């Protein structure tokens, strides 16, 4: 076979399909799940991440998803709480495992996982996310390998900005994909500020992330901040 020597086309986040939004950045509507769903539809009708980042947001989300609501999205993920946790870990996993079967992925932060074996109940819906530089663990391929060995059915949620915060050269991001691309469920896309908060993707970061994101074309890209208008 003759290799394709044509230059790869520019990877535009704005034009990527499938694209979707995380409700995590929609702070002014937090807790109002119908309003959050409507806001997410303004970005895409294909994919969404319903983010209950704080545990006190989770009961209303569970009620919303169990109410018989029919969401128009083809891909729906739920981001499990990573803040203000009061449930026992077993109770939290019970709640996540009981989410409707049409939820495609359940994103969990590895630094919040204590009894790892409990999460086996989530099966292939579990998506473990790589962490940013502020966290004590779950940042690198080596750190995540132990979790994936213990949870062989789990998927991977790749946060490209988190990878950048750990290694601005993006070499660690490449290592994460070398190790776990076969587990990739979806991608978080944004820039980060100095305190680790998600910001709209900057042109500089879009250029820097291009090669790494170019390895993730077959899965939904979930925006963790709105795209800049232009």
Please explain how this structure is put together:
The chain is an alpha/beta fold and 230 residues long. The chain has 7 helices and 10 strands. The strands form 2 sheets. It has an 8-stranded parallel barrel. It has a two-stranded antiparallel ribbon with strand order 8-9. Strand 2 (47-51), helix 2 (58-65) and strand 3 form a beta-alpha-beta unit. Residues 1-8 have low confidence and may be disordered.
The Cα radius of gyration reads 17 Å
| Low confidence ranges | 1-8
Strand content: 15-25%
Q: What's the shape? A: globular
Which sheet architecture does the biggest sheet show? 8 strands, parallel, barrel
Whole-number average pLDDT? 93
* Helix amount: 25-40%
Number of β-strand runs: 10
Write out the strand line-up for the largest beta sheet, numbering strands in chain order. Answer: 1-2-3-4-5-6-7-10
In DSSP terms, counting alpha (H) and pi (I) runs of 4 or more, how many helices? 7
> Could you tell me how far the N terminus lies from the C terminus, measured between alpha carbons in angstroms?
41 Å
Question: In summary, what is this structure?
Answer:
The chain has 7 helices and 10 strands. The chain is of the alpha/beta class and 230 residues long.
